[in-house]
Amino acid sequence: MVKEEGKEEGREPSGQGVLQGKKVMVSSQSDADSLAESGYGVRTEKTKLALTLPEALYLASEKRLRVLAEGVEIEFPELLRRCRGEDPEVWAKYVLYRDLRSRGYVVREGSIGGMGFRVYERGAYPKKAAKYVVFPVREGNPVSMSRLSEVLLTAEAAKKKPIIAVIDRRGEIVYYSLTQYNPY
Prior knowledge:
Number of strands: 11
Number of domains: 2
CATH class of the largest domain: Alpha Beta
Shape: globular
Radius of gyration: 18 Å
CATH architecture of the largest domain: 3-Layer(aba) Sandwich
Strand order of the largest sheet: 3-4-2-1-5-6
Order of helices and strands: EEHEEHEEHHEEEHEE
Structural class: alpha+beta
CATH topology of the largest domain: Trna Endonuclease, Chain: A, domain 1
Number of helices: 5
Strand content: 25-35%
Distance between the termini: 66 Å
Largest sheet: 6 strands, mixed
């Protein structure tokens, strides 16, 4: 088999989307169905699926999605550049998203107070609610105690386990569970 430039041998992208601001829209019903079944995106209409930028970056990096902009297919580096223009923190979100997905979790953008990601236990999506809220912190960027307290209280109110993901400069991640200190 001949290897095409920019493609893994024997692996064709399984979908196509169009970059539209902070989303990548998948219009093909079969592509949308396949991706949604695996826990990607949010349905905007019966046949359309909206992917977040970290989802689109992950799928593009895994050669599961071709992304078009202005009618032309763009490669991963260009997609990342454009995504950074929409969200300066997209690289950290992508690195965290990629790590969690590579561990077998279904990852959804956090709807709990705009925090990080909701993470489902392996095999639980879509039958059960997310078990964790993973809040990304970039090494060297301070986070106030009041912000950590807000993350903890919001996650607990939603009956989720709060996790802090510290992303270092090399893209390595260390996970910490967040709990309240109760000396009694």
